[in-house]
Design goal:
This protein is α/β, with parallel strands linked by helices. The protein contains six helices and nine strands. The protein has helices at about 45-50, 70, 90-100, 110-125, 140-150, 170-185; strands at about 5-15, 20-30, 35, 60-65, 75-80, 155-160, 190-195, 205-215, 215-219. β8 and β9 (about 215-219) form a beta hairpin. The two termini are about 20 Å apart.
Length: about 220
């Protein structure tokens, strides 16, 4: 499998009063699972959003597989810390179909998007939730649906913001197994933030930690 690579040169990223990156240089192969660490308020989420092209860099060059963020967006699936709360009474499968087809709430008569949505829900262990309203799901269940949505366009890299936060121990362990399987079976690299007691050894695939500190990314 081909390893995505994130390269930064002379990066300056400021968000409000916070200087997230200050003349930062790095070469970061995204092999397996990469855990982004850093103190509260250091700008981890802002850094992820810059990779996604959602917030601009002030100066410098950031490339994912030789492409700037907006051109590389199709390579990335994104799961924010808090899953969306829109249309809570629509069934789970409609929310996943919406991500596949680009149509509001997945109200499609085509069978192909439904089959693909069921495939993605199966991968994330949420196929049994397909016909349940999104609003009745637990936090762990909703996260698995959000992960299926993030997989909608067959990304090479998944960016996950605090994916284990606010989960009970059983759900956290199940997700660690799932994240390892996404890489081992499907070749999808993962970049995630974590405040919880999460270690690279918790995964059954290649995993390592990086640190965001004082405007520099330590890889």
């Amino acid at each position: 499998m081909i390893t995505p690579c994130l390269v930064g040169r002379k990066l300056l990223l400021q968000v409000g009063p916070c200087t997230v990156l200050n003349n930062a240089d790095f070469d970061l192969p995204l092999n397996g699972i990469t855990i982004l660490r850093g103190a509260n308020g250091v700008g981890k989420t802002s850094f992820l959003r810059a990779i996604l092209g959602l917030i601009p860099l002030q100066t410098g060059t950031l490339l994912l597989d030789h492409k700037p963020p907006k051109q590389a967006r199709h390579l990335i699936g994104y799961m924010p810390q808090k899953a969306g709360q829109h249309a809570p009474m629509l069934p789970v499968i409609s929310h996943v179909i919406a991500c596949i087809s680009g149509k509001n709430w997945g109200l499609s008569w085509s069978r192909a998007p439904r089959r693909e949505a069921l495939r993605l829900l199966t991968i994330t262990g949420a196929a049994h939730l397909a016909d349940r309203p999104l609003g009745v799901l637990s936090g762990g269940e909703r996260q698995r649906v959000a992960l299926a949505q993030a997989l909608a366009h067959q990304p090479r890299l998944l960016i996950l913001d605090e994916p284990l936060a606010a989960l009970d121990p059983q759900a956290r362990n199940a997700n660690r197994i799932l994240f390892s399987e996404l890489y081992n079976r499907y070749g999808i690299a993962l970049l995630m933030t974590a405040h919880s007691a999460l270690e690279a050894d918790d995964f059954s695939c290649p995993a390592h930690e990086i640190w965001l500190e004082e405007g520099q990314l330590h890889v």
